[in-house]
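ok posting inputs for the iron/sulfur cluster job
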Amino acid sequence: MLKKKMIKNFTWPLKVATHGVESTRLYPEVMMELPAAERGIHELDATTCIGCGSCARVCPNSCIEMVPYKYGNPLKNKKMQFPQIDYGRCMFCGLCVDECPVECLKMGKNVVMTGWEREDIVKGPGDIAARKHSAKEVAEFEAEAKRIAAEKAAAKKAAAKEGAAKKAPAKAAGEKAPKKAEGANDKSKNGGAS
Ligand code: SF4
Ligand code: SF4
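and the output
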């Protein structure tokens, strides 16, 4: 048995050297091919996420926190929040993915999540967003939101002005009517005296 092992100790390095057999992983220079079912860091489509928080509620380890993110969908709701995942607690069960009503969250293939600090393994929407709006798109959304708000304010102002203009003649007529009545009363009084 010992003899067999000794022979293998000589033949294996020889085989590696002559046949180019991979004796060790070349990670991180060369990433090994991962199985199709591998679950890595989540991928979020921030452009379709509706910020419902279902993923955070279903997570058994409470590792999802909803946080604001500018490049999601600022036109829909500026206060909308997006998932931030703490990979120090995530067990990659995939329940959050199953629960997402719009299928904007999925398990990605990136398994590299090392860092020097504890915070380095807490990935915000900016880190996990596979799709997000660009700064230019966000600026356009904001300009559009401002335009819509200005239009609404102008329409409200015009409606208020129109309402006031309609009320004015009615008010004037209402003021005249008592005067007439007063005049009639005076006449009847005078008539009574003569
Ligand atoms: S994969 Fe599981 S543990 Fe990780 S965030 Fe989703 S629900 Fe939570
Ligand atoms: S990722 Fe899905 S479940 Fe989570 S907040 Fe967005 S839409 Fe809701």
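notes: Helices lie at 2-19, 54-58, 95-99, 125-128, 135-193. The mean pLDDT is 84.
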